[in-house]
Amino acid sequence: MVPLSYEVKSGDQVEILTSNKQNPKDDWMNFVITARAKSKIKNALKDQRKKVAEQGRELLEKKFIQG
Q1: Helix, strand, coil in percent for the chain, rounding step 5
Q2: Does pLDDT of 67 surpass 80?
Q3: What is the number of other CB atoms lying within 10 angstroms of the CB of residue 40?
């Protein structure tokens, strides 16, 4: 195991550990290099923010209806 900041060299073999519970973080943008990776992370973060905003909107609407 090496830190995320470790720069992979030619010939290195890597195993990427994943989890269904893991969500992208803003600081991941500091580690990725390719435009495709940056785009995927940005889209995932945008979807995450939309979901949180929608949940907040629903909670607020329930509060207004109740009282």
Answers
A1: 55, 0, 45
A2: no
A3: 14
